[in-house]
Each structure stands twice: as structure tokens, then as C-alpha cells.
């Protein structure tokens, strides 16, 4: 199996993530779409790493995973603090500032 | 090479088939008397009260967020542990610094009371 | 693959700031939460890192197995970041005390964000670049939402976080494609094989995704949507930090990748950057005219300034880089000063932020009004202030790189910008009113803004002070 299939798959996953960010209005689901984007990149990195026989890509995947976890923690905390003040996570209702 | 896996394949296939056949036999022969009690959510024998779709206490989020943070760091410990001998002294010191930084973070979290339930 | 003591010693600015941050975190954890101690420690840490950077300015070395660049270019940017952090910490204290939200962790987050910025400027490997951007961004997300009882602060944090994380996705995909085609993440190795890589469409796609990600971080059109809202909603000192330090860091990474690593002159990448620059200058300046809120006005003006600096990157030359380096130093000073004074006048409930609230300011507070005028003149690019030479150098670089149309747009839009910057000066001096600063401003903060104003004038009179330094970096 060539590397192309992996690249196509991860490109499709990435695009699904991008569309999710643009189309969905719930902050949590938008965030999940972003996570999908990051993980599709991980797939690309691992595929390239195997293809090139080079370990750097896999190393980068580890960093992406940990950074994504840190981002998830921060992001959830921010979304919760908004929810406590506004009782909503719908992005259309986040409108005190002009979006 | 692949032939040597054949018994395992049969084993798995046989296992799945056995399970499916047994379930289907049960469905076919067993009596069915649905009651309200049987359809309710199982909560360790307690009577379910209220809906399950309600808001959790924010404390759960706190624990979850901290869990994500400290749990994922193991991803760095694993490769280090596997190649501990090759990395030697240098790897040990590097990882030591990493763990110390994490511990400072944990100490902060602890002193700020984020680990306390009440 | 050894890490040596000399590696650590040569990275003294970064290492010292990290250690200060960790010690400050321990102090903050102790009983009684000694906020003043954390404040002093953070200021000392910034000052120490600044001194270390100044000291290592002369020699450029690559440490940590080709991963990190120290000295020279990296030290120059470290100086910009640490001064930005220093000013931010000084300005945040009275601001947060007024809101009764002062916590030591605010200063610690600023320190760690600064470490992230330093990593961005010194990255010689795409992995380090990614880690630096993330360290900075994650701290900034929290800082933006720091006043967690205020809905505007929450909202802007959510927006910044979601769009910032979205940009991270593009950055990573770009890194992945560059890695896949170049076979390495090391920038030096990539630059050696750039000539044959630049024909590879997958590589160009990766570079394009990197342009998108960096444009997000510098707030350039069409990836600027987050900037006005986030700048308006964030606590004003944090806005100052974002628009100076974070923008400088994003430009440091932009220059590292697109001028120092990729020779983009004459490639499609250069054209794309030139269009982004033109769009940012036009949209930023035209929209800024319509704003009545000063923080929003400065947000759009910062989009326009990103456009001016991007024309230096589109030029892709040594002159372009020198211009950007000078511009960033000048921009950091003048924007920090402007936001600093705005944070004094502003009230707790987000009022007193419009132009009208400055009527008669010059009569009540003549010195502060004069300093604010200096910053506005400098932002407008009127000689002899620092902002003028920044623009002069980047436009000169654009002209030399046959991008005359870009320089023309730059000059024309600068003329537009004079209108809204000087409008504030007009209101302060020629309209009657009793605008003033109601709370007492600490003498230290006052002195710091005075120093910034002096530096803006000094850099305008003697631009060669900085330009000569940045010119020496091209021996790498």
C-alpha cells in the first residue's frame, strides 16, 4: 500500500475538521473538530515517518499529543468559565463583542 | 509463515460463532416478559431518580482537566523507559528535569486546593 | 547527541527566565500567596533575561544539536520580548488591583509566554517552532480570559482559543507536509535543499499552510477576524502584550522560516504574502477610521501594521529583514505606550474607552497627553518618531524587490491612518472637556511610560542604533 492512501485519508479527515469548525455552532463540537484536525495531522506525520524511515515524525506526534492535551485542558476551562457567566456554549449567542 | 497462524484464526472464528449461536438460541427459545423494572437504568440496584442528562458539579471538570494534563505526560516516559539503558546518564538527567517541572506544577495545583473535593 | 553545560549557558536568557518562572510558581504556591514577591521576582527575571540577551547579542551560535539558535537574531528578539513582558507586568499590577483580581499567576503566565516567544525566535527546527508557538498561545489564552468574572473577557478568550487552535491545525499540517517532502524538520537542512524543493507542489502546499498559520498569529487579512474582538475583550495590559510581544514573536517565526530558510523571492509564496500585506494595509486602515472604541481602533491599526511589516517579508531580502526588526522594536514601544495610557484612563466597567472620553485631556494631564501624542504621531509614521523609520525601511525593501505597487499602497494607506491617529490628538488638545485619570497611577508605571516615550523619540532620531545591530546578523 502506497503512502498516497494515507495522505488522502488524512487530508479528508483534516477537511472534515475544517468544515466542522466553520459550520458547527457549539463551542465543544468546534473544539472536537479542531482535535480531529490535529489527529489527521498525526496520521500524516506517522505515514511520512514510516515512508521516510525517519523517527522525527513520530517524535513530533508525541509532542502534538501532549500539546493537544494541554490545549484541551485550557480550552475546556475557558469554555466552562464562559458557561458559568452566560449559561450557553452556543457561539451565535456569544455576541457582546461583535464577532 | 502465515499458515502457522491458521489455528489461531480458527480458534477466533470458532469462538465468535459459538457466542453468536448461543445468543441466538437464547433469543429463540427463551421466554420474554418485559416489565418496566427491566427497562429502567441499572444503578447498582438503587431506584433510579431523575434524568441522567443533568449538569455535573464543576468539581468533576476540575479532576478531568487535571487528569488529562498529568496523564498524557506518560507518553514521554514510555519511550524513555524503553531506551533507558541507551540514553544512560544524559537521559536520566533530562527526564529528571522534566519530572521536577511537572512536580512543581502538581505542587501548585495541590496548594491552590484544586485537588480537594470539598 | 549530547546536551552540554555550554548549551545551557549559551541559552542563558531562556533558561534564566524559565527558572524564574518556576521559582515564582513555587513562591506563589506557598501559604499567604505573596503576590508582591512574585511581582518583584518576575520583573527581576525579565531584567536578568534582558541583560543576558544584550550580553550575547554579538555572537550567533547554534546549540542543542542544531535545534536552537542563540545570540544575534535570537537575542535581539529576546530583548524585544523581555521588555514587552516587563512593561506588561508593570502595567498589569495597578489595572488588576483596580479590578480586585490581582493574582501572582498572572505574572508567571506572562513569563512563560515570553519563554515561548523566545523559543519561536530561536527555533532552528520546526518542532521547536511548534512548541514555542503553543507555549506562547496557551499562556495567552488564559491571560485573555484572566478576568473570569467578566463576560467580555470570557468571550474573547473563547474566540481567541478556538481560532488560535484552528490556526495550530494549519501550522501542524504545514509542518507535516514540509517534513514529508524535505525529509527533515531542521530548518538549516531544509534551506540547503530549498532550490529543488520549491518545485514540489506538496512542499509549496505545506509552505502555503504555514503562511496561513502565521498570518493568523500576526493578525493579517484575511485571517484577522479574531483580533478586534480579542483585543477589545482582553484586559488592556494583556492586549498590549498580545499586540507587541506576541506579534513580534509571530514575525520572528515568519522571518526565520520565510526569509532565513526559504529563499522566497520570485516564488508564488512571495506573491501570496504581498497580497496578504496589501489587503491588511487597506482593510486595517479603512476599518480603523470607523471605530469609536480606542482598543478596537488600535486593533485595526495593528492589522494595518502587520501589513506594513509583511511587505518586508514579501521582499524576502536582507533589507526587508532589517526593516522588520527595526519596525518591531519601534512598534513594541509605541503600542505598549499607547495601551498603557489607555489602561489608566479606562474605567472598571469598560467605559471611558472612546475618543470623546479624551476631550480636554491635555488641560488636565498635560504630560500624559503629550506622551500619548508622541505614541500617536509615531504610530502614524510621522518623522522624527521611531514609527517613521520602520515604515521607511520596509517600503524601501519592497521597492528594491520590484514590489513598487506594494510600497505605493503602503504609503497611501499610511496617509489614511494619519486621520484616525491624529483625531485622538485633536480631541485631547482642541476639544473642551474634563477627561482625566481618576485613580492614582503609581510613580513607577508613570516612569516606565516616560522611558518608553523617550525611547520612541530616541529611536526616531538615531535609527542607526538598532539598524546597525540588525545588519550584523547576516553573517550566518
Notes on the protein architecture:
The complex is a heterotrimer of chains A (99), B (118) and C (476). Chain A is built from three helices and no strands. Chain A has 99 residues and is mainly α. Chain A has a single domain, classed as Helix Hairpins (Orthogonal Bundle), CATH 1.10.287. The longest helix of chain A is centred in the last third of the chain and has 31 residues. Chain B has a single domain, classed as Methane Monooxygenase Hydroxylase, Chain G, domain 1 (Up-down Bundle). Chain B is built from five helices and no strands. Chain B is mostly helical and 118 residues long. A two-stranded antiparallel sheet of chain C has the order 1-2. Chain C is mainly α. Chain C has a domain of 212 residues. In chain C, 63% of the residues are buried. Chains in contact: A-B, A-C, B-C. Chains A and C meet through helix 1, helix 2 and helix 3 of A and helix 6, helix 7 and helix 11 of C.
Structural class of chain C: mainly alpha
Give, in order, the helices and strands of chain C: HHHEEHHHHHHHHHHHHHHHHHH
CATH superfamily of chain B: NADH:ubiquinone/plastoquinone oxidoreductase, chain 3
Percent of residues in beta strands of chain B: under 5%
The residue ranges of chain C in which pLDDT falls below 50 over 5 or more consecutive positions are none
The fraction of residues assigned to DSSP E strands of chain C is: under 5%
Largest sheet of chain B: none
Name its key features.
heterotrimer, B: 118 residues, mainly alpha, Methane Monooxygenase Hydroxylase, Chain G, domain 1, 5 helices, flat, C: 476 residues, 1% strand
SSE topology sketch:
The complex is a heterotrimer of chains A (99), B (118) and C (476).
Chain A: H1 3-23, H2 27-52, H3 56-86
Helix pairs in contact in A: 1-2, 2-3
Chain B: H1 6-29, H2 36-39, H3 58-72, H4 74-82, H5 84-111
Helix pairs in contact in B: 4-5
Chain C: H1 5-10, H2 12-29, H3 35-55, E1 61-63, E2 68-70, H4 73-98, H5 104-122, H6 126-144, H7 151-182, H8 187-192, H9 194-197, H10 201-218, H11 226-233, H12 236-261, H13 268-289, H14 294-315, H15 318-345, H16 361-364, H17 366-380, H18 386-400, H19 404-430, H20 443-461, H21 464-471
Antiparallel strand pairs in C: 1-2
